[in-house]
Specification:
heterodimer; A: about 425 residues; DNA polymerase, domain 1; 3 domains; five-stranded mixed β-sheet; B: about 250 residues; alpha/beta; Rossmann fold; eight-stranded mixed β-sheet; globular
Chain lengths: ~425, ~250
């Protein structure tokens, strides 16, 4: 079954009303829409009840027709006032009183029908089909089928562009972040509503703030998993803006979301728990705001021998992101506890007294903040390393060339010192613990 | 008998008669014995109705060091706060990283909240840590930020192990952390079931911690031009239980 709404001058309202009932909508400018209502009987009951509900929701005076096919519904809505229900099998009888000029044929056919004295759908339906075909051709046959209330075509549905963006131009520039949060909430609500309407989520939110002067302020929130939590997005954008506020008053706000399929996960009874990605992302954003943008994440060791070379990547628990259970790795049979280095970042400069080419005393420099400068009991080395010297002069600052020493201080601490061979300076790199 | 006692107990806590003897027709047990009997009856019917808090047996996270399994707890309990303390080069970090390696290999997601920014990813990877399952928070020397970050991550839940590294934080600063903060962290760990391990110079959480391990350096081992490893001694200090274990951390 199909329902049609007809209200001259209110096409937008009709489309919005139809969206509340069905995603399959055909727009018939300038004054009508028709949409699929199959399956709504279980929700609203018989067609009469559904028609009443449509009339209640549409909000403007409109003709409503329900018919077995889209064309019959549209003709009934355009031709009859109020609510019309066209029962299956009674299409021709119900539509018979309608004026024949409701059929959208060519002017020549309309003129011929007028000359023949055909005034209504009923008159047209009574004409012999073979005679109509001989005189009016295919168009006449098609129009006569419509006059009989027969139709078999599907809907030519409205296709929304897949754009999940919203923007607002402000009457007055906004300087404070608090009023900006209200605007962001409204725009995010709009974007998230559209995503939810299509059963989608997002993995990237882009915010652009056009400023009164200067270049626009842009922020991109990249999410490790698809999410659709408007409040979390707002909080993350607020944290980002607090940490990196726009350089001037904002005159226009633009929010865009990248649509992706939502995440589906299957949890197991015996798999270790993992942080909920949505909650975790907001928590990590808060921690990032606290300790700094690049100081939170998962370390990834670079493929180099350079000491302390790693990149900080975004923490994304793989099981939560992919929905696959976490692999449990076996412990190697010969695994033993490993001595760890606690690094000083950056390495602390020290002065070392050398006797017989071995370090014997740290003269100055507080190695661990408690002043362990003093006699070196044991020093083993040098362990000579160098690298990146082949990269050329422009990258000479990136190269390293050093002698490493493991030392035991009088205080009991075990340290790694290194001598930068190029500059001749000593550094304490860390403590073994 | 038990039902009768329950009934008499719920009827307005009527005291025994002045003679301290019997209610009419029934022999009255002594008050202490009666209380024990009521308690036994209630405990049989309901789970721990009279205990303020009966904690369920928690699982343990073990560092994979055989010697430490002989200590009273045999590991670091989930849902509890544990402390590992000791001076520099005493093996605290080796023990914690070993625990981290075991936990990440077992599929747990872990967090290392590093007050001083001293964590070395290469050492952790050598100890078998699955770095993809580790969230590292580098607080750049700010212990207050470390505590706040830990609180946020604990409240978020889902982590199996969280390590708060205050090993390079001066003792005076670490002592300023109020006991209420430790209680709050312990409570959050209990609620989320995470094992919370604090790495520090001296014991600070006091009664809030379930495990207190004090580490001491026994002797470094030198071979050729290198430091080959470190022999450490762990001493469990919690209430009356004091036991020691020695282990070897290889470089």
């Amino acid at each position: 079954m199909f329902a049609s709404l007809h209200a001259p001058g209110n096409l937008g309202i009709l489309i919005e009303c139809a969206r509340g009932f069905s995603p399959h909508i055909e727009e018939l400018p300038p004054d009508a829409v028709v949409f699929d209502i199959r399956g709504l009987g279980s929700l609203f009951g018989p067609p009469e009840s559904l028609a009443q509900e449509i009339a209640r929701r549409v909000g403007v005076p409109a003709n409503i027709a329900i018919a077995p096919n889209p064309d019959a519904a549209v003709h009934a809505a355009r031709g009859f006032r109020g609510v019309t229900i066209v029962q299956p099998g009674r299409e021709a009888a119900t539509l018979a009183p309608l004026a024949v000029n409701l059929l959208t044929g060519s002017p020549e056919v309309a003129e011929l029908l007028h000359l023949w004295g055909v005034r209504t759908f009923g008159d047209f339906a009574k004409l012999p089909p073979l005679g109509v075909a001989a005189r009016l051709g295919d168009e006449g046959v098609e129009l006569q089928r419509l006059a009989c209330g027969l139709g078999y075509r599907g809907l030519r549905e409205i296709v929304d562009p897949l754009e999940f963006e919203a923007e607002l131009e402000l009457e007055y520039p906004v300087e404070l972040l608090e009023p900006l949060a209200f605007i962001l909430a409204r725009l995010l609500n709009d974007v998230c509503g559209r995503l939810a309407g299509r059963a989608l989520a997002t993995n990237e939110i882009r915010l652009r703030l056009d400023l009164e002067q200067g270049p626009a302020h842009e922020t991109v929130l990249r999410l490790p998993v698809p999410m659709l939590d408007q409040r979390a997005f707002l909080r993350m954008l607020q944290l980002d803006l607090n940490g990196r506020p726009p350089a001037g008053p904002v005159v226009k706000v633009h929010v865009a979301a990248n649509p992706v399929k939502p995440r589906r996960t299957q949890h197991g009874l015996f798999t270790p728990t993992s942080p909920e990605p949505e909650k975790l992302e907001l928590t990590v954003a808060r921690v990032r705001h606290l300790v700094g943008q690049n100081n939170v994440g998962t370390p990834e060791i670079r493929d180099t021998h350079r000491p302390d070379a790693f990149d900080m990547r975004a923490f994304a628990p793989s099981s939560s992101a992919s929905g696959k259970p976490v692999a449990v790795l076996e412990r190697p049979a010969d695994a033993v506890p490993r001595l760890s280095l606690r690094r000083f970042r950056p390495p602390r400069p020290i002065q070392v007294l050398m006797v017989n080419q071995r370090p014997t005393r740290v003269i100055t420099g507080a190695v661990s903040g408690t002043g362990v400068a003093g006699r070196i009991l044991m020093a083993k080395g040098p362990w000579r390393t160098s690298g990146d010297w082949w990269r050329g002069s422009e990258l000479s600052a990136m190269s390293w060339n050093r002698d490493e020493w493991d030392v035991a201080m009088e205080s009991g601490g075990l340290y790694r010192f290194h001598l930068d061979v190029d500059s001749g300076r000593w550094f304490a790199e860390g403590t073994y613990d | 008998m038990g039902a009768a006692l329950l009934e008499s107990n719920t009827r307005g806590l009527a005291p025994p008669n002045a003679a301290g003897g019997e209610l009419s027709g029934f022999p009255s047990p002594r008050p202490a014995a009666a209380a024990l009997q009521i308690r036994a009856e209630l405990e049989a019917r309901f789970e721990a109705p009279l205990d303020f808090r009966k904690r369920p047996a928690a699982g343990l996270l073990t560092p994979g060091i055989e010697a430490l399994d002989r200590l009273p707890a045999g590991g670091f309990p989930r849902g509890s706060l544990s402390e590992i303390c000791g001076p520099d080069s005493s093996g605290r970090t080796a023990l914690s990283i070993s625990l981290l390696g075991e936990a990440t290999r077992a599929g747990e997601f872990c967090a290392w909240i590093d007050a001083a920014g001293a964590f070395d990813p290469a050492s952790a990877a050598e100890a078998g840590t699955v770095l993809e399952r580790l969230l590292w928070v580098d607080c750049r020397g700010n212990a207050e930020h470390a505590l706040k970050s830990l609180d946020l991550l604990l409240q978020a839940g889902g982590f199996g192990l969280l390590v708060l590294d205050l090993a390079d934080t001066p003792e005076r600063e670490a002592r300023r952390i109020p006991l209420a903060s430790w209680f709050r962290l312990r409570h959050a760990a209990e609620r989320t079931g995470a094992a919370l391990v604090v790495l520090e110079k001296t014991i600070n959480a006091r009664s809030c911690s379930a495990i207190q391990l004090e580490m001491r350096q026994k002797s470094p081992v030198w071979v050729g031009k290198l430091l080959r490893g470190l022999e450490s001694k762990a001493e469990s200090r919690k209430h009356y239980q004091v036991r020691t274990a020695e282990f070897w951390a290889e470089r």
